[in-house]
Design goal:
Length: 111
């Protein structure tokens, strides 16, 4: 097992990730729907951002993103070698309305 495989988000980062989840989840259903992300981004790129977000995070292809999928995604970002500082920068960027960034190499297993 590589040095990053067992990493978990710190409690502070987990809270931060869930705060962003709640900003998307405007109806409080504990799942993010495409209509919610399109409203969130409001821009010309809202549909593109939504498609990229769902391709990356909606692992069961249900058309919604659960809290568990959301947390698993950010944990996989951490485990792929990104730091919590990288994640915090990305969360801040998304919170300010910037586009969804596709993280590379998340599915590759090291070992």
């Amino acid at each position: 097992m590589g040095p990053t495989q067992g990493k978990e988000l710190s409690p502070q980062m987990r809270d931060r990730v869930l705060k962003l989840f709640a900003r998307f989840d405007v109806d409080g259903s504990k799942s993010i729907e495409k209509s919610e992300t399109i409203k969130y981004w409001k821009s010309n790129f809202a549909k593109l951002n939504t498609e990229e977000l769902f391709k990356s995070v909606d692992t069961d292809n249900s058309g919604t993103i659960s809290e568990e999928e959301w947390l698993n995604f950010w944990t996989s970002v951490l485990r792929s070698g990104h730091t919590e500082e990288d994640i915090a920068d990305e969360l801040e960027s998304i919170e300010s309305g910037s586009s969804w960034v596709k993280f590379e190499n998340l599915d590759k297993k090291k070992g």
